[in-house]
Design a protein that fits this description.
This protein has helices spanning 55-58, 117-128, 132-135, 148-160, 163-176, 222-228, 255-267, 274-286; strands at residues 2-7, 15-16, 19-25, 39-40, 52-53, 64-66, 69-72, 77-78, 110-111, 136-138, 144-146, 181-186, 199-200, 206-207, 217-220, 236-241. It is α+β, with helices and mostly antiparallel strands.
Length: 306
């Protein structure tokens, strides 16, 4: 049940210590408001999945709109085809046909080029086992998706609260995110996959560095781009050294450690969340019985920039 609470004065209905309860809405699984269990005041435009209601089309609570869809909660499906389709389900499906587990605030991923998909599947296999190829697949636009078997497996692991389930949750969060995350494997300079050129700041300075100097992984997030005033960055990018084992004597880490560490940086972009990056990294390591990584000075939680 959702409670939408607004502070009001001079209103004498449902007052609780100065707080006026404006809306109480109980939904069915896909968002239909339930008769007799809903109280809605005037002026509140949003409903299930935090989306805007369009009551003029099909009556109160029977239609929602978002950036990439028009949605009918009575049918549990969208009017238009999904712009990021999943080949395992209908292009008109909403919430991967499981509105209890999934959300889709934009009605809208992890993107890996064809040349890099083999490397990425190797790294997924290191954590999720030999069944990884049955759990994940790539669509025609090189976006990572969960197969039906993968959805069931991830739900089971997450329900059990295992380390693997938490890693599934992280991957699922990136897959379902409105932000695109590129996974790039290279032994050369770090470049912006959106331009094919080195990253460049607002002063025209090009930021060039081989990925080896970053310890085998470099992650440039949308938040980083704003802080560093990088140009032409609308997507997250995780850059991984192709070599399976790198930096002998310095890290001695297999490549998959860097892949999941980089995804951790995309999941937790705030300065105040950096210790969660190490936590996510270590959950993937536990699945491989790999040595855990301690929290270093570069991953201590710090105040967020305003």
């Amino acid at each position: 049940m959702r409670y939408d609470v607004a502070i009001k004065t001079g209103i004498e209905k449902m007052r609780i210590q100065g707080v006026c309860l404006q809306n109480v809405t109980d939904y069915s699984s896909f968002g239909v408001t339930l008769d007799g269990r809903t109280m809605q005041g005037d002026g509140y435009r949003y409903g299930m999945n935090s989306q805007e209601k369009v009551d003029e089309i099909s009556g109160a609570g029977n239609h929602y709109t978002a950036t990439h869809w028009e949605y009918d909660p009575r049918l549990g499906s969208r009017w238009n085809q999904d712009p990021k389709p999943n080949p395992s389900i209908s292009n008109y499906a909403a919430f991967a046909n499981n509105s209890i587990w999934y959300s889709d605030p934009l009605g809208d991923t992890i993107r890996v080029t064809t040349a890099n998909q083999g490397y990425f599947m190797e790294d997924l296999t290191a954590v999720f086992g030999q069944d990884a190829s049955l759990l994940f697949e790539f669509d025609k636009n090189n976006n990572l998706t969960f197969t039906r078997a993968g959805q069931i497996k991830s739900y089971r692991e997450q329900s059990l609260g295992t380390n693997k389930g938490d890693v599934y949750t992280g991957v699922l969060t990136l897959v379902n995110s409105e932000e695109v995350t590129n996974i790039v494997y290279t032994n050369k300079e770090i470049t912006n996959p959106e331009t094919g050129q080195p990253y460049e700041n607002d002063k025209g300075q090009k930021l060039t560095s081989p990925v080896q100097k970053s310890g085998g992984e470099a992650t440039i997030t949308i938040s980083d781009a704003k802080t560093q005033k990088l140009k032409n960055v609308s997507q997250n990018t995780v850059v991984i050294l192709i070599d399976k084992v790198h930096s002998p004597g310095l890290y001695d880490d297999p490549r998959e450690n860097n892949t999941f560490h980089g995804m951790g940086h995309v999941l937790y972009q705030k300065n105040s969340e950096q210790e969660k990056v190490i936590d996510f990294d270590n959950k993937s390591r536990r699945e491989r019985n790999a040595p855990l990584r301690p929290v270093d000075s570069g991953h201590k939680n710090k105040p967020d920039n305003n």
